[in-house]
Design brief:
two-stranded antiparallel ribbon; 7 strands; alpha+beta; about 150 residues; three-stranded antiparallel sheet; flat
């Protein structure tokens, strides 16, 4: 395992907790307490950037060589992003009517999922540990995939 630093008193491996944003400022001494030897010491932060270049042939030709991946967005049904260069294309904006229809469709799927999840949870509560129903329930993605195999919500 990699640690951020070692205590200058006892040499114990130590990590800096940045959860609240503390310890990132580069021009100040940060105080840190060692849980091993129970002494307080200071450290300075130095942030280094590294870059990893890769080819993006799709940006160097007049031909459309982008490797497009479609993104689910009810406002832009044809939205896509290139897997190589991450350029995005929104396509045409959905009409307010089409957007409203898509939101209603999505709300119906969510409602159906929640009802099925509740039913499965209730069945699992009733099942004993020796039955097959004691296993995991559907995730939202699995349920939506299940609905799409049966032609939507019905």
């Amino acid at each position: 395992m990699y640690y951020d630093m070692q205590c200058p008193y006892c040499g114990a491996d130590d990590d800096v907790c940045h959860d609240d944003g503390a310890g990132y400022a580069e021009d100040e001494a940060h105080q840190h307490w060692c849980g091993h030897c129970e002494k307080t010491y200071v450290f300075q932060t130095s942030i280094d950037f590294s870059y990893e270049p890769s080819k993006a042939d799709c940006l160097n030709t007049d031909d459309d060589l982008h490797d497009w991946k479609h993104i689910d967005d009810p406002w832009y049904p044809q939205k896509k992003i290139c897997r190589v260069c991450e350029e995005s294309s929104n396509g045409e904006r959905a009409s307010d009517e089409d957007h409203a229809k898509e939101l209603i469709r999505m709300a119906r799927i969510v409602y159906a999922f929640e009802q099925a999840q509740k039913a499965l949870t209730d069945m699992c509560k009733e099942a004993t540990e020796s039955t097959v129903l004691g296993g995991p329930t559907f995730t939202r993605g699995q349920f939506v995939k299940f609905l799409s195999k049966d032609g939507g919500e019905g």
